[in-house]
Design brief:
56 residues; alpha+beta; two-stranded parallel ribbon; 2 helices; 48% helix; globular; DNA-binding; ATP binding; DNA_mismatch_repair_MutS_C; ATP-dependent DNA damage sensor activity
């Protein structure tokens, strides 16, 4: 999560953020909450996001 903190603080509207396995190692409920929260923050910033995840 330290890396995500840096990404959220330094991302701009010109950034391309590539996320993989965000929230891995947490329960399914927390994984979805983390992913949604981070996604909403990145959308508010206006940057481009590519999110990949492996199915459970």
């Amino acid at each position: 999560m330290r890396e995500m903190n840096v990404i959220l603080r330094k991302a701009t509207k010109n950034s391309l953020v590539i996320l993989h396995e965000l929230g891995r190692g947490t329960s399914h409920k927390y994984d979805l909450a983390i992913a949604l929260s981070v996604s909403e923050s990145l959308i508010d910033i206006g940057c481009r996001v590519w999110r990949a995840s492996c199915p459970p």
